[in-house]
Specification:
It is built from three helices and four strands; from the N terminus they run ββαββαα. The chain is an alpha+beta fold and about 140 residues long. The longest helix is centred in the C-terminal third of the chain and has 21 residues, at about 85-105.
Length: about 140
């Protein structure tokens, strides 16, 4: 008899990477980190610039960073995350911002013709993140 997997009620501090293979883009995901821990992560990873430094008004954000190797990478940061619907909404919201940045960085317009690709990229990133969380 196989053991049934359950979704954990609480998710601790998590950091992992997901990849948007179509565009060879790395996305760092930080969940349940304090702003101070995020700042330490930026320093540890020698991030050269970051546009998001004010945390008071945000449940989460998506930002582009310049990594040590001069590559542009993306970060999804969510201050408080668990499996509640509100947190899922925040995650999907930040994934959408991330995909918009990838589209813009590759000069892909958001149109009727590209909407299916856009939606597929959002759902794939959500699935990749969920997979990492449930492993």
């Amino acid at each position: 008899m196989s053991k049934k997997k359950t979704i954990p009620e609480k998710i601790g501090k998590r950091y992992f990477k997901v990849y948007v293979s179509v565009f060879d883009r790395k996305v760092h995901v930080l969940l349940n980190h304090t702003p101070e821990e995020y700042a330490k992560w930026l320093t540890k990873n020698k991030v050269k610039d970051v546009s998001q430094t004010k945390f008071d008004d945000f449940a989460g954000f998506s930002v582009e960073i310049t990594a040590e190797n001069e590559q542009i990478e993306l970060v999804i940061y969510i201050k408080h995350f668990n499996w509640a619907i509100k947190c899922q909404g925040t995650l999907i919201h930040e994934i959408t911002h991330t995909i918009v940045k990838i589209f813009a960085g590759n000069s892909i317009p958001f149109t009727i013709e590209t909407q299916e690709f856009f939606a597929q990229m959002i759902s794939r990133m959500y699935e990749d993140i969920a997979y990492k969380l449930l492993r």
